[in-house]
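TEACHING EXERCISE
Course module: macromolecular assemblies
Task: Read the component lines below, then compare them to the predicted structure of the full complex.
Student: A.B.
Group: 4
Components provided:
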Amino acid sequence: MMHILVLVLDLGGTFVFAISGAMVAVKYRLDAFGVLVLSFAAGNAGGITRDLLIGAIPPAAIEDWRYVVVSALAGTITFLWYPVTRRYSRDVLWLDAVGLAFFAVAGAEKALVHGIHPMMAALLGMLTGIGGGMLRDVLVSGIPTVLRTDLYALAALAGAGVVVGGHLLQVAPTMAAVAGGCVCLALRFMAIRRGWHLPSARSGHGAAPDNHDDGNGR
Amino acid sequence: MMHILVLVLDLGGTFVFAISGAMVAVKYRLDAFGVLVLSFAAGNAGGITRDLLIGAIPPAAIEDWRYVVVSALAGTITFLWYPVTRRYSRDVLWLDAVGLAFFAVAGAEKALVHGIHPMMAALLGMLTGIGGGMLRDVLVSGIPTVLRTDLYALAALAGAGVVVGGHLLQVAPTMAAVAGGCVCLALRFMAIRRGWHLPSARSGHGAAPDNHDDGNGR
Amino acid sequence: MMHILVLVLDLGGTFVFAISGAMVAVKYRLDAFGVLVLSFAAGNAGGITRDLLIGAIPPAAIEDWRYVVVSALAGTITFLWYPVTRRYSRDVLWLDAVGLAFFAVAGAEKALVHGIHPMMAALLGMLTGIGGGMLRDVLVSGIPTVLRTDLYALAALAGAGVVVGGHLLQVAPTMAAVAGGCVCLALRFMAIRRGWHLPSARSGHGAAPDNHDDGNGR
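Instructor-supplied answer key:
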């Protein structure tokens, strides 16, 4: 049961994040194959890293061919209809929030199943959510937008935290997953709509602007 | 037998890729030690990642000291005779294609031996081939050229795919390895000579050029 | 006993490197949460990579919640009092050398305990020392300063090498650790004070300067 829950959330998140990877790849003029590679990286790096860290080896995305197929499908769709996909990039932003919620919840759930300490399980849920986006951005040599985008990592952590909290309070996993997903989505939605964000430090000196930040995924 | 085959191909590929890593390191003015580190990274990141993902832990490049020695040798040669190495950089390009073929074949073979699903074994062969070049470029903060260079990743996948096909058809591993290597080489050679390449998407907007792409390895 | 030695050195190194990660994050204007993420990455990437490579899975930094707490503490302090921290950045440089010594020694020790070949154990000690700084710099898209900073990686390797040498000569681990730490510190101190550094290759062509190098940690 929990296994199916994790699988469905994982594949859903993979699809959405693979689209975001493909869009960045097209923007940076990678060829058709590079687009597929970046789709896979963005869609699966978070889950693969989580699986390596909790000792679920080989990782699900390597053992189960469906992850590749889903990633390739998302990459192909984006590649073939990029101008169309682009026009809906605002909607992709919402989709991305849904993917983030899926991954955060699935990541925390799987870590708990593997007997990881609750606090670390919540952090692994967050990592599952932001890992793919981080690799995507590092590969095109930008600072990961997930480290700067409003409440992005925090929303993932909050969602994962709810799952872990539910586990500690012995709530049914499906309910905790739904609640965690909603918290993550709600935070991202408020951040996108209302511009909620966290403070930066008073850095006490001039800016160190990063010319590579291209706001992908924002 | 298969173990020796993988070892020879792996060490050969490591040597060639370590040279490519060292050349990039020299170009970016890393010091002698940084050159050795980048040699090791470029020569072994693909194989190490493959081993982590298939559960062959510790990875061969950590368990077996020969990988480090081969990498250090390649790095030292490149460092000491950089102007010479540079003059032959066209030949290094061909060597690099040979290394790619070695790695793609060895990677697929090893994944099969570890009982990975055939489709994933082919992809792991590709990853073994392109992983080192990707880390090399990310460390000097460029977009990985392997994601843009003509047919690079695709040639690796094709070679690995032949190995996997041979496995499914129960061809002798050595023969499948030779055939796979030849396919990979042939594709890269045509790409270099004739400029074969895959299409990019119509991105529907201006370029997002990347100033860091320095065409290393091309 | 050796376990406690590794733990203390690891946590100490984590704290210091987490500060360096947080300082870079603040400089690049990440928000409060991004600062914490980069603190954790800089403080733990080296140890996590080492643990994955030697098969100590889940890695200590995932299994033991103290690593996260120490990283978060360092990140929070840096974030809240950045102008103050910044004023003492020269002292942070010395602290960083101490962290490097801690990590190099702990990394080599742990690899030996896991039965890794001595030469590879020394290299894994080095990797433990420089891994966090490398990820930190890659995430803000610079060339890792650890690959260019004077004798940085070499000092780590020397310290780790002393630990391994002590192991081979059956010296008491604590003594070998102290000696190794001193060697690493001494090399870094001389490099900082006297400008000791390794030669670069005669690259035989114009510079390929990297605009992102911001000398963090120097």
